[in-house]
Amino acid sequence: MSSLPALHHVRPAPGEAVPATRGIPRVLAIAGSDPSGGAGIQADLKSIAATGGYGMAAITALTAQNTRGVSAVHVPPAEFLAAQLAAVSDDIAVDAVKIGMLGDAQVIAAVRTWLEKVRPGVVVLDPVMVATSGDRLLQESAEAALRELLPLADLITPNLAELAMLLGEPEAATWPDALEQGKRLAAETGATVLVKGGHLDGADCPDALVNTGGALSADVVVVDGERVPTRNSHGTGCSLSSAMATAQARLGDWELSLRTVKPWLEEALRSSGQLEVGHGNGPVHHFHHLVSTGAAPEGSFADVLHAEAAADLDAIYGLGFIRGLAEGTLPENEFAYYLAQDAIYLNGYSRVLARASALAPTEAEQLFWARSAQQCLEVESELHRSWLSTRSVLPDLGPVTKAYVDHLLAASASGSYAVLVAAVLPCFWLYAEVGETLHAEFLDAGAPKGHPYAEWLRTYADEGFAEATGQAIGIADAAGRAASDEERSRMLTAFRQSSRYEVEFFDAPRLHS
Ligand SMILES: Nc1ncnc2c1ncn2[C@@H]1O[C@H](COP(=O)(O)OP(=O)(O)OP(=O)(O)O)[C@@H](O)[C@H]1O
Ligand SMILES: Cc1ncc(COP(=O)(O)O)c(N)n1
Fold it and tell me: Domains in the chain, start-ordered, CATH in brackets?
């Protein structure tokens, strides 16, 4: 015995809103297979998933086709379709059904019997007769049976050729004529008709919901859209109808459903060029809205960051402070100011690194940031013990130090580990590069005796810090490659800002000491 909730056996009266499904709607596509993946059941499953449903598929027919056309059609015995349908509805509550290619009259009869028994809450029928390529997907002898099936649907989604065939009229050449035909089909069937503008010319591509029985806010509700200049329209009808079934099961409102689905489909057409599928009318990109998970090569994001910092590194080497430090001509008060600000900075930086440790996704990264935070405090106390103890008056928190630490604290409160990692990186990376260069210059000059900053320049030869910098770069690179476009862009902004503060930090003694 089926344990389906009563809701799924009760069909709402015409005009009555279908209750929106809580959670993920279970949507069954009853359609033909397109092995090239652009139309039929394959497009249905992609569309259902892309618009937030759980897709199921009972296959009416197998086609051999690609983007250029259909080469063969095989319709299995209708009893086998009936078995598929029963297997689904005996076990699973079906929130919405989308019906596509039916093939022949026996298949139509099997679907009719199942619909009359199960009475799903949402039935969308795409009366597929002829593929875009011109190949028949419904036997001519089955057209009458298809017409008789229409009143069992809530929404019918014919293209202009199908609309005309169902009415036995010539194809509409203008949008107003198409809407008039939509009204006639709606009146004949009692269903809502989705009249589609895809086959018309012009810069716009409108669609309209038509129902003359008062089910909508007006007899004709037009939803405008732009025409996308592409030949990749294979499967747009299949995609639209299954997305409408899914949206309706969730929203319970046809107009809202079309307004939700149409922009998604328009973007899927617009992004179709990203797919390189076939040589004919290619498929649309159903999942255009998902972030690309194609793994970027290791080091690629680090390369982007390094390029971002190049101008700031040049600026640092050009600063009077750096030249004076290297040549031994830096005024003592500027050096003392720098050391005092460095000690203050390291205290704040340590707190920010501790936050990175708290947010780290792996224990190895957690440990790395925790160790780095500890080392900052050790360097801070070493500065006080040996470098600052001989200097009597210590400057307070300077404006650049404050701004830099505030920026890091903001990054640590951004909620994004990736952004925080990007923000703390320049202090490792730029400092390590500048230190290495100054130390090398010092050695090249023969480590001159009597250089007033010789002892300080020797501290730059710290292999442990160079190794930690390599680890920090690796973590930021991995975080950047895994981030969404939006998060990666926030990482770049945070990194750029910190890199800029590195320049200002080295220039602050000149301005504020
Ligand atoms: N070039 C386009 N730009 C924007 N939207 C389009 C374009 N072509 C089709 N559409 C939209 O795609 C959907 C399907 O419309 P169309 O009239 O092409 O139906 P169809 O012929 O049944 O589709 P199919 O191409 O799958 O046979 C409609 O929402 C329509 O507005
Ligand atoms: C199995 C199957 N179902 C439907 C269509 C219609 O799609 P289109 O008109 O875009 O070719 C198709 N080509 N194949």
Answer: 26-274 (3.40.1190.20), 300-512 (1.20.910.10)
